[in-house]
Design goal:
The complex is a heterodimer of chains A (230) and B (483).
Chain A lengths: L5 H22 L3 H26 L2 H29 L11 H25 L8 H17 L3 H23 L4 H29 L23
Helix pairs in contact in A: 1-2, 1-5, 2-3, 2-6, 3-7, 4-5, 5-6
Chain B lengths: L1 H20 L5 H26 L2 E3 L4 E3 L1 H30 L5 H23 L3 H19 L5 H36 L8 H6 L6 H19 L7 H8 L2 H29 L4 H21 L5 H22 L1 H33 L10 H4 L1 H14 L6 H16 L3 H24 L15 H15 L3 H14 L1
Antiparallel strand pairs in B: 1-2
Classes of the chains: A mainly alpha (230), B mainly alpha (483).
Chain lengths: 230, 483
């Protein structure tokens, strides 16, 4: 039996935790815990990037580790917590589909992602190629989360966690994107978050709630409420 | 090289100045001046490229070739005319009490930043930066769509943000896959995402990875192009945002997103032996044309009507690039130009029409021509142009696309012709009563700026009759490049 170096075992372990966290987010009803889970996901991501950087001697990955740590573990969760506090939206919420069904759909998605990732990971020559399937699965699960939640903040957390999945995919397939692109992506995510913060207050001001069920006026056949055209 | 820096720096400076001075009476004028300066710089860049040919600058990070140079000029031009139009338009909106000075400050600086992201997306040679610029374009416009803060506009902006955000995330995954394929040949680091480097080795790129990458890229950027079934955000964002924003979304953003798709298609065509990318684009394009044409007749809101017409035309262009070959590509590039000019002109006219009648509901807009002949004629002529009436340029490009379709994919022609016929009937029957008949319009306190409308329409007319030789040369060499 061939033994796998400890570093790679660690990466596989972290990847598994990442998938577990994605499922936990799918099942979590409380928005504050959801933010904590998102921060935990960011932390695991940073940790796995650091391990990859160490085992493969890719110094530029340390920079992305620092970037991930700063942005996704501290800055974004802090901003989200602040938003939740200011908007006072600590309710528990219902998804469109109940949790067990969502989990079952999630499992199907994981199988699908592993199949989709198989031909690519065979071509990859990185040591982390086996985790590509997990990266795709967490992208799909975040996507599912965005579809099944109808409140604004969980949708945004789904969006951010999809970005985490993409980042993990980039690390496992190619040891990360070029630095200039990574910086650009980080900037976009940060600016996007700030704009959303402003946007949430606008929604709140208008609807007195962040529940997207109020958003049912614009339909394919209707042309919007008359009030908008005045 | 210095021209590229200037073209990119001017809108940023404009945005900073506009954010700093806030909303004064001159702010709209500063916006016009900044846009004019960008246009002049873009013209200088264009002249330079006419003289010296394509150029790579700043460590190969920027690329100007026949394919993007005319889009740069078009973007700067439409940006300028929209700024000219938006000055009286926004003044009227402010008098109607729909906007406050703080929101106008946001509007002006975001408008400049949006132009910057468009130019950056066009000029960059780095596929990763292209993605960053496309995402930034969404971010700069999302608060513009919700500028009126009405429930409907907030919903439209939310939809726009989430759908385009998810779409663009798919495009990022596609870009990662592209980098993954390229890194094997070009080595890790910045070089493996430069389009020119990728183009040089495109025949050796791994086909399976590239086909998967293209699916993600097409779905991702295709969401921004507004291809059916990813088009849901487009009509809402166009209808609920202020009219100048609708004009630049339709006239510029859709073009630039399609530009990104076509750049990627060039790479995939080189790597894959079959017509994989072409067939996908033909399929998406045709579906968009047909679905959008049939949805046109159900619209009641004037801006939604023309938003659906944009989906239809982007479908036609995608279809043309899918066909490929020198003639269809030439027609696609020409159609990109004339659609952008015509559609922004129509939005200008429609915006003023809505202000004059106080509604965007078409049943309540009647007899524009009696109270304001310029707006009425602008809307009527713009509509005739977009419906492909000769001698306007849209006729020339649609004719070329149809004839190439007959030659290469004969089965598609009946679908295209039916869709064009249905679109004609739907739009014409709705616009005719708006222009003629008993009037519901009233005079406005500020003279509307109709000069941009007629400037755009006369350019479209010119392109239908005579294409300047340098432009025809660009179209031809760009068509060769796209393959």
């Amino acid at each position: 039996m061939t033994s796998i170096p400890i570093g790679f075992q660690l990466i596989n372990l972290l990847a598994a935790i990442l998938l577990l966290l994605a499922f936990a987010m799918l099942a979590q009803r409380r928005v504050v815990s959801l933010i904590d889970l998102f921060a935990a996901q960011g932390f695991v991501l940073a940790l796995s990037t650091a391990v990859v950087a160490y085992t493969t001697a890719q110094p530029h990955l340390y920079q992305s580790t620092a970037l991930t740590l700063l942005l996704k573990v501290f800055l974004l969760p802090w901003l989200l917590h602040r938003l939740v506090r200011k908007l006072d939206v600590r309710w528990e919420f219902e998804g469109l589909i109940n949790i067990p069904t969502t989990m079952l759909i999630g499992i199907v998605l994981v199988v699908f992602s592993f199949n989709l990732a198989l031909p690519i990971s065979q071509l990859a020559n990185t040591v982390t190629r086996s985790t590509l399937g997990i990266a795709m699965a967490s992208i799909m699960l975040s996507f599912l989360m965005m579809i099944t939640r109808r409140k604004a903040i969980p949708q945004v957390i789904g969006f951010l966690s999809m970005e985490n999945g993409l980042f993990f995919a980039a690390t496992s397939a190619t040891y990360g994107m070029p630095m200039v692109v990574e910086l650009g992506i980080a900037l976009d995510v940060l600016v996007g978050m700030l704009i959303l913060g402003v946007f949430f207050f606008q929604i709140r001001e208008q609807f007195d709630s962040l529940d997207l069920k109020h958003f049912e006026t614009l339909r394919e056949d209707a042309s919007g409420p008359d009030g908008a055209a005045e | 090289m210095i021209e590229i820096v200037v073209v990119l720096a001017l809108p940023v400076i404009g945005a900073a100045v506009l954010a700093a001075i806030g909303h004064r009476r001159q702010a709209a004028l500063v916006n016009v001046v900044a846009s004019l300066a960008t246009l002049v710089a873009a013209a200088a860049l264009t002249a330079r490229v006419i003289e010296d040919g394509p150029l790579l600058a700043l460590g190969k990070q920027f690329l100007v070739d026949p394919f993007n140079v005319f889009l740069v000029a078009l973007t700067a031009f439409v940006g300028f005319t929209t700024a000219v139009f938006s000055r009286p338009y926004m003044m009227i909106e402010e008098q109607h009490g729909r906007l406050t000075p703080a929101r106008l400050r946001l509007y002006h600086s975001m408008f400049q930043l949006f132009i910057f992201t468009m130019l950056l997306a066009l000029l960059t040679n780095n596929v990763g930066i292209l993605w960053v610029a496309m995402e930034a374009a969404t971010l700069t416009t999302v608060l513009l769509v919700s500028l009126y803060r009405t429930p409907a506009s907030l919903e439209a902006a939310w939809k726009y943000f989430i759908l385009c955000g998810v779409g663009i995330a798919q495009a990022l995954f596609g870009t990662i896959l592209l980098y993954f394929a390229a890194e094997k040949l070009l080595g890790a680091g910045g070089g493996a995402l430069l389009w020119t480097e990728l183009d040089a080795v495109r025949a050796d790129l791994e086909p399976t990875v590239l086909s998967l990458a293209f699916v993600f890229l097409l779905v991702g950027y295709g969401t921004k192009v507004g291809l059916v079934p990813l088009h849901n955000w487009l009509p809402d964002a166009h209808a609920e945002g202020p009219t100048p924003v609708s004009a630049v979304l339709s006239g510029l953003l859709l073009n630039v997103a399609l530009y990104a798709v076509v750049r990627c298609k060039v790479l995939v065509d080189g790597a894959l032996p079959g017509a994989f990318a072409k067939n996908l684009m033909i399929g998406f394009g045709l579906l968009s044309v047909v679905v959008a044409a049939f949805l046109l007749s159900r619209q009641r809101d004037i801006k939604r009507l023309f938003a659906y017409s944009s989906i239809e035309h982007m479908g036609i262009i995608t279809f043309a690039f899918g066909l490929g070959g020198p003639i269809a590509n030439f027609a696609g590039l020409l159609h990109m130009t004339v659609h952008s000019l015509t559609k922004s002109a129509i939005f200008f006219a429609a915006g003023h029409a809505a202000q004059k009648t106080g509604t965007q509901i078409m049943d309540d807009i009647r007899g524009l021509i009696t109270i304001s002949p310029v707006v009425g004629w602008g809307l009527a002529l713009g509509t005739l142009a977009i419906l492909g009436m000769p001698p306007f340029g849209v006729f020339a490009s649609e004719f070329l696309i149809l004839t190439s379709a007959m030659r290469e994919q004969p089965w598609a022609t009946p679908f295209l012709l039916t869709a064009l016929g249905v679109a004609f009937a739907a739009i014409f029957s709705k616009v005719q009563p708006m222009v003629f008949g008993e009037t519901t319009a009233s005079r406005l306190p500020v003279r509307p700026a109709m000069l941009p409308v007629f400037l755009h329409l006369s350019l479209v007319l010119m392109l239908g009759v005579w294409i300047p030789p340098f432009l025809a040369d660009w179209y031809r060499s760009a068509a060769r490049l796209i393959g």
